[in-house]
Model the fold of this input.
Amino acid sequence: MVSYVVYAGGPPYITFNTRAEAEGYFDWAKGGDDRKVTRSAIVEVDDGGVPVDPRLTAAFKQLRAKGYTALENHWCCASCGWSVIPDEEAERAVFYHAQDYAQFLETRTGFLVWDGDGREICETLVEAGLQVQWDGSKATRILVIL
Done:
């Protein structure tokens, strides 16, 4: 089931069953409220609360097909995320966690935690139609621009 989350600059996030309901909230919120609310803050989500950007979802699916453990909105932070990935999967893993999820909602950009072949991960993201920024260092997270 798909629903729509409105991000208005910080928690709480307001969830609606239809895009029309979410847009109606926007119309109400912009009328006299000084919060910076824009239509880009309406995010389609699935039952797990993961932002549904078809390109990001497609890229993660393709990474899984290439043998990566690829997880969206995985745990609260990088440390916890890594702690639950089995050792045999950790050498080819890519994910973003709840803090990155909040950043995706706010800015439409977010960082990926990863291990494996950074170039292959970046190429897969670009092939899916996403923009990436990465300096080529294994110690640097990959920035994804939705």
Notes: Residues 54-145 form one domain. The chain has five helices and eight strands.
